[in-house]
Amino acid sequence: MRASEFDRAFDANEDITEYLDKSAAKRPMQDTERVNVDFPVWMVDQLDREAKRLGVTRQSVIKVWLSERLEARH
Predict the structure, then answer these.
(1) HSE of 29 in the Cβ direction (CA atoms, 13 Å)?
(2) Exposure b/e, 38-50, CB count within 10 A at least 16 = b
């Protein structure tokens, strides 16, 4: 498909996904890096209670809370 045809199809809201090479696609700012953090037992207990209340994992609670705090700084 020529670039001009691709642009026309995109502009016409046609499905162009078959023409995309998704093998190298990445979501920006979504790379991960593993870190180890030590928490006091009382904090882990509270995190676990909150995770159970919300029906999510402890890691999810930590990620959301940290993200909210970091976003609030901007």
Answers:
(1) 1
(2) eeeeeeeeebeee
The residues spanned by each domain of the chain are 3-72
Contact 25, 36 (CB under 8 A): no
Q: Please list the pLDDT of the chain residue by residue as tens digits (74 residues).
A: 889 999 999 999 999 989 888 888 888 888 889 999 999 999 999 999 999 999 999 999 999 999 999 999 87
Which residue has tokens 């979504």?
30
| Residues 61, 68 contacting (CB under 8 angstroms) | no
**Helix or strand holding residue 1 (H, E):** none
